[in-house]
Write a structure and sequence with these properties.
heterodimer, A: 272 residues, mainly alpha, B: 332 residues, alpha/beta, Rossmann fold, Alpha-Beta Plaits, 12 helices
Chain lengths: 272, 332
């Protein structure tokens, strides 16, 4: 991969921007190799959302009544897509924490490489992985009866929004991984962070049936908003998603990146 | 030839209340091997980390080939190779891929990376394992790969943090030969070690580090001359017997007593011992135990500080804890 993506330059002195891109791609290449060498990582991170699809589609789905006439699977799949990228972001935390524990981070810091490359390479690799997993989940969705009510542009827009959201989540978890510095702790620390985002949300059930005090959170927290935005893009305007949700989701993505990217970079500068 | 490749002045580093470096100074001439000798927790690794720009010092100044580690870290990174204490290789990458990654990140030209990696894999006896993920490697193989990675960009200055810890005898000798070759080719090497023998075999100069300070800085031959080439330890029934033996022996040899143990260092080794034992036997003072060994880090420490060389990580302000631990170790 690197042979084709990295330009052949025979000198050691390279402009800073060129170096940043080359180094980020080198670290991305290195991180993607791990997914190829340890396919379990990918299999398990894919099996879980598939189980959710099967469970909600065939077990709980019948008990969940939607306030309008719409096949439940069409409501469910955008939620599952979002859940997939949210849980996928955990890999960012675990990957960085492992590098700290193994001493690789220390080596990286002694190399004349762009300071941004370790974090950029980690998050880019996880973005690539998300693209792969989302495509897989889309295929699973179509297999269990998911149907597009809008057009292909809506679907592409939804996937792009999903990937952007997954990328933003990666930066939250990059900060977590660098903060704890140990893969097992990173995993343990992530769940309490994820639970209110994933379960107190519109991912699997309509917010309209939740208690009143929970609704504001469940309606406006980033995970719900993004699921609603993708529903708008795949179903069209409905009680489950409006055009405004797309804008709200984009705002969340921008906000998360603005807060957590500098935070992760600062942690990285201090981490060994 | 004689100008310094590495200069360290008054370097200090604290982690919370723990003083890792309490102001150390040393300088390393170009094309030489300099050894930092000391027990665990003495501050050796902290010094290397600062020189490799991984950590910033609190006070003091350090430079590598004239580049200041704080003001020009990127300049320093371009001229150094670092092999840390924990073989820092990516377990999921093959040996070759690990070297390729380091080649890319040290800004080597793409055409140079593959042949350089192949040459280093050959030199470190890793050619057969080159295309296997590093997680399948033995500890020694990982170590060698780690050092090969440090050498990828042909750094003029090389930092080796306890490079032979965990290596078998054969790999250790191989590595020593390699370090000598590198110096002949013009590399400057700063290595840390807990073994006097290693520092003695490789380094032209040794700084003994204790609790974040340099307590001796000399050629190995000078340090060893203070100790003698052979150390004999004789155990006696009780302290009084030991003291009488010490008095007897001290007329002809440097002898010291610690409890019921008399320690004697000599340059003539076993030959002296025959005479010593005859003398003791004549005085009716037969030792109950006798060990003869080459001087170790512990002997250097005893000589320089009057203390045993011990990890000072937890015992800096609790000498009692160290004593307890030693007693338990002796019982085990």
């Amino acid at each position: 991969m690197s042979e084709t993506t990295v330009a052949d330059v025979a000198v050691r002195e390279r402009p800073i921007a060129v170096r940043a891109v080359r180094d980020a791609l080198a670290v991305t290449w290195r991180n993607l190799i791990a997914y190829r060498r340890v396919p379990q990582l990918l299999v398990f991170s894919t099996i879980q959302p598939v189980i959710f699809v099967v469970m909600f589609r065939y077990v709980f789905g019948g008990a969940i009544s939607l306030p309008i006439r719409l096949p439940y699977v069409d409501f469910l799949m955008p939620g599952v897509f979002v859940q997939t990228v949210v849980f996928g972001a955990l890999a960012t935390a675990i990957g960085l924490a492992s590098d700290m524990k193994s001493g690789l981070m220390e080596r990286f810091r002694s190399l004349p490489m762009a300071r941004s490359a370790v974090l950029a390479g980690r998050t880019l690799a996880d973005l690539t992985r998300n693209l792969f997993v989302v495509m897989l989940m889309l295929a699973v969705g179509f297999l269990v009866g998911f149907r597009l009510h809008t057009d292909i542009l809506g679907l592409i827009g939804g996937i792009l929004l999903l990937l952007a959201f997954g990328y933003a989540m990666s930066w939250i978890f990059a900060s977590v991984g660098l903060l704890v510095g140990d893969p097992e702790t990173a995993q343990a620390a992530a769940f309490p962070l994820l639970a209110p985002l994933v379960f107190a949300s519109s991912l699997f059930v309509p917010v309209q049936r939740m208690p009143g005090w929970l609704q504001p959170w469940a309606n406006h927290q980033p995970v719900s908003v993004t699921a609603k935005a993708i529903r708008f893009l795949t179903i069209g305007p409905s009680p489950f998603g409006q055009a405004s949700d797309v804008w709200e989701s984009l705002l969340w993505i921008a906000g998360i990146l603005l807060v957590f990217a500098p935070l992760a970079v600062r942690r990285y500068r201090r981490a060994i | 030839m004689t100008d310094a490749a590495i200069e360290v002045e008054g370097l200090t580093k604290r982690f919370g209340d723990v003083v890792a470096l309490g102001g150390i100074d040393f300088s390393v001439p170009t094309r030489s091997v300099f050894g930092l000798l000391g027990p665990n927790g003495a501050g050796k690794t902290t010094a290397i980390r600062i020189l490799a720009t991984v950590l910033e010092p609190d006070e003091g100044r350090a430079s590598v080939l004239g580049r200041d580690v704080v003001r020009d870290p990127d300049g320093v990174r371009r001229v150094i190779g670092l092999a840390g204490q924990y073989a820092a290789v990516d377990p999921n990458l093959t040996g070759r891929e690990n070297l390729r990654l380091i080649g890319l990140l040290t800004q080597m030209s793409s055409t140079d990376i593959s042949p350089r990696a192949a040459a280093l894999l050959g030199r470190f006896d890793l050619t057969d394992a080159a295309d296997r993920p590093a997680k399948t490697y033995s500890g020694g193989m990982r170590r060698r790969l780690d050092i090969a990675a440090a050498l990828m960009p042909r750094p003029p200055v090389l930092f080796l943090d306890e490079p032979t810890t965990g290596l078998d005898l054969y790999s250790r000798n191989e590595l020593w030969d390699m370090i000598r070759e590198l110096v002949e080719e013009g590399t400057t090497v700063l290595l840390t070690t807990q073994y006097l023998e290693e520092a003695d075999r490789l380094a032209q100069r040794i700084a003994v580090v204790d609790q974040g300070r340099v307590i001796a800085n000399d050629a190995p031959s000078v340090l060893k001359a203070q100790l003698g080439n052979t150390v004999a330890e004789m155990g006696f029934e009780d302290d009084t017997g030991a003291e009488r033996a010490r008095e007897l022996l001290a007329r002809a040899h440097p002898a010291e007593r610690e409890g019921s143990i008399v320690r004697l260092s000599t340059n003539e080794g076993p030959r002296v011992l025959i005479g010593v034992l005859r003398e003791l036997d004549g005085a009716g003072l037969s030792p109950s135990t006798l060990t003869v060994h080459e001087p170790s880090l512990d002997d250097v420490f005893l000589k320089l500080t009057g203390r045993h060389a011990e990890s000072t990580e937890t015992t800096t302000d609790q000498p009692a804890a160290g004593r307890r631990r030693r007693r338990r170790g002796a019982a085990a």
